[in-house]
Amino acid sequence: MADIKAEYLACPIRQVVSRFGDKWSMLVLYMLYTSERQRVGDQGSGMTGILRFNEIRRLMTDCSQKMLSQTLKNLEQSHLVHREVYPEVPPRVEYSLTETGKSLMPALTALIAWGKEHFNEVVTD
């Protein structure tokens, strides 16, 4: 049993996919990637991919507030999402992709393209 556990811990596929392989994580990552909103004060900087919690929530109406909060925390702990808190009243919190998160996007967009191409073959009643 100890050999299997050590094997599991050393497996990069299991470890990486377990961090963001769920449907909510992938949706959040893709939404941040495709967002065109800029940070307040970053006029013309080209900085995109920033959303507030409620903006993400509006885009993911089928995800509970608790699940979205947990998903964002997990993505932040995995260094895929950056959480910026502004000292204002009320506090403003913005989420964006980290460089590590951005580096994942070619693989995620390729997976989405594959899913679109093979949707009818894979998704059956």
From TrEMBL:
It comes from the Bacteria. One of its GO terms (molecular function) is DNA binding. This is Transcriptional regulator. InterPro entries: HTH_HxlR, WH-like_DNA-bd_sf, WH_DNA-bd_sf. Keywords: DNA-binding, Transcription, Transcription regulation. It holds the Pfam family HxlR. Coiled coil: none annotated. Residues 11-123 form the HTH hxlR-type domain.
